[in-house]
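R.M. (postdoc): so does anyone remember the format we settled on? I'll just put the structure tokens first.
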């Protein structure tokens, strides 16, 4: 009987150790992805600033294509910011986002 309990204890310790390792790995991956989003947002901001400067040049002032590029880039920046907010909120309060999703479905 003592051997069975010892065996189960060892199996439990190994399983818990693996779960802790896996959780740390997932948290590190999430952290890297949110940092990647920050880098993408920074680059898009630089790109938007550059497009705005080009749009203000005499040769391109009023060009609809450049104006549309600026608007689309700003829209993409906003989307990434909202996405990052949702991802971080999901990690901090996973039940809150489920409740919000249910409320949105009920409103429709």
């Amino acid at each position: 009987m003592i051997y069975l309990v010892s065996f189960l204890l060892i199996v439990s310790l190994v399983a818990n150790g693996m779960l802790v390792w896996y959780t740390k790995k997932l948290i590190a991956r999430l952290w890297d992805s949110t940092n990647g989003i920050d880098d993408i947002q920074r680059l898009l901001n630089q790109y938007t600033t550059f497009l705005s400067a080009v749009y203000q040049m005499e040769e391109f002032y009023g060009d609809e294509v450049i104006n549309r590029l600026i608007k689309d880039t700003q829209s993409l920046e906003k989307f990434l910011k909202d996405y990052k907010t949702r991802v971080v909120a999901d990690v901090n309060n996973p039940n809150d986002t489920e409740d919000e999703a249910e409320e949105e479905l009920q409103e429709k």
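R.M.: ...and that's the designed sequence above, right after the tokens. Also worth knowing: The chain is about 90% helix and 0% strand. The CA atoms of residues 33 and 84 lie 9 Å apart.
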